[in-house]
Amino acid sequence: MLIKEKSQKLFSEAQNYIPGGVNSPVRAFKAVGGNPLFIDHAKGAYMYDVDGNAYIDMINSWGPMIFGHADEQVLKAVQEAIPSSLSFGAPGAAEVEIAELITDLVPSIEKVRMVNSGTEATMSAIRLARGYTGREKMIKFEGCYHGHGDSFLIAAGSGAITMGEPNSPGVTVGTAKDTLTAPFNDLEAIRTLVNANKDQIAAIILEPVAGNMGCVLPQEGYLEGLRQICDEEGIVLIVDEVMTGFRLAAGGAQEVFNVKADITTLGKIIGGGMPVGAYGGKKEIMDFVSPQGPVYQAGTLSGNPISMAAGLAQLKRIKNDKDLYQRLTEKTQKIADGIAAHLKALNLNYYTSQIGSMYTLFFTENEVHNFEDAKSCDLEKFGKFFNAMLEEGVYLPPSQFETWFISDALTDKEISKIIDAAGKSLKAIH
Asked: Is 240 a catalytic residue?
């Protein structure tokens, strides 16, 4: 058994001063049982907790650490930027450079505004879409996560044309009435919503590859169908690439699936591990943002010089590394194939999903194409698997509904350990 005394003590202390003892809910391990580990440091493919235990990291700060932890180029850029001050509250040259690089790498983005988080990016994108179209309603998808803005914390209504219901205290019914919800991968549900709310819908927002119900891929023709509906109805298509942006390709999921957004939201990788977000899109839409246009959005620390330095270093490395995504896909495929071999050997029929360096093992025998499918998983069994893998020195996302993120820091040595750990863990829980 792992020694966790220092983590346990810190968690007990944290609960006196921090709600639930953590600063983001999933970290509390409530979905998998047990108490969270407190991390001391991380390097490359590994994280080390305060008790000295080492773990192969399969989260990588929920996506940003695509090259692994403490990447030398990113650290160097941050160290060089620090002496110039941690914040200006005024424009800096790095903001221009990173904006130019983003517009170069993502063809659908002609102008971009830097913000401080993915949540801030999606909130701003929705406001911009409403201001640009003069409409108030939006469509989101069950199981797609766009941060904790009020508009996104809406559960599905009782029918296809019924307005959503707040699923968090503090979200008003007034907010919910402007949010329509549909199942992921269901074009007919979208057509029904659009027809029932003619000329009222400002935007459709989605993750092109869902990452917060596990890794769930769009079915063939789905993204293209959404693009067509938006074009026909004058609806702004917001593609939330906070997770998939620069994770699946230099041009994100839009490059992989050959679909262009009107507005794209970004985060995670573009900060190199620092807090950051961005939203960008067509020039005609982005020119509605203040001070050029009437849609107000501001941020004291937006374009923070340290975040810009980290993000710029990471994006430059991504641009110059022509084999990065092939390597990531190959490493992830090795892990997926290895786990599949164990499942077959144990005569287990679980569902797995993988694209590029995103992967999920679903504890269900059914295919998973939407949130209802994901909710049918055996969550208790996933919790047992998570804890078994932790004992084997592999740190998975502490929820069935979270994607695994693979980093380029993994070598064949770590990949073999992950596959071996999965075999032992699957055998132990059945």
From this structure: yes
Which helix H or strand E contains 423, and what residues bound it? helix 412-428
The answer to whether residues 429 and 383 touch, using CB atoms and an 8 Å cutoff, is no
Rg (CA), the chain: 21
pLDDT digits (tens, 9 = 90+) for 136-195: 999 999 999 999 998 888 865 444 444 566 778 888 888 888 999 999 999 999 999 999
pTM above 0.90, yes or no: yes
pLDDT given for residue 1 in this prediction = 84
Is 351 an active-site residue?
A: no
Across the beta sheet with 358-362, what order do the strands follow? 351-355, 358-362, 404-405
- Which residues make Cβ contacts (< 8 Å) with residue 277, sequence separation at least 6? 114, 115, 116, 117, 118, 119, 120, 121, 242, 265, 266, 267, 270, 271
Q: What is the pLDDT of residue 162?
A: 47
Confirm if 214 and 149 have CB atoms less than 8 A apart: no
Q: What is the mean pLDDT of residues 259-272?
A: 97
**What is the three-class DSSP state of 166?**
strand
Convert 294-308 to b/e letters by CB count within 10 Å (16 or more is b). ebebeeebbbbbbbb
In the set 49, 57, 71, 240, the catalytic residue is 240
386 Cβ contact list (under 8 Å, min separation 6): 32, 396, 398
Query: Which residue, 238, 223, 251, is CA-closest to 121?
Result: 238
Q: Rounded to an integer, what distance in angstroms lies between the CA atom of residue 404 and that of residue 59?
A: 6
Calculate the alpha carbon distances from 323 to 327, 329, 334, 362 in Å: 6, 10, 17, 29
Report the C-alpha gap between 407 and 424 in whole angstroms: 23
Given the residues 132, 145, 325, 395, the one annotated as active site? 145
Tokens 């235990």 locate to 53
Exposure letters 363-384 (e unless 16+ CB within 10 A, then b) = bbeeebbbbebbeebebebbbb
| Spatial distance between the Cα atoms of 332 and 66, rounded to a whole number of angstroms | 12
Are the CB atoms for 199 and 232 separated by under 8 Å? no
Question: How many other C-beta atoms can be found within 10 angstroms of the C-beta atom of residue 317?
Answer: 18
Residue 71 designated active-site: no
Catalytic residue among 4, 111, 137, 268: 268
- The whole-angstrom separation of Cα 90 and Cα 83 is 16
Q: Tokens 């179209």 label which residue?
A: 133
Residue type (1 letter), 151 = S
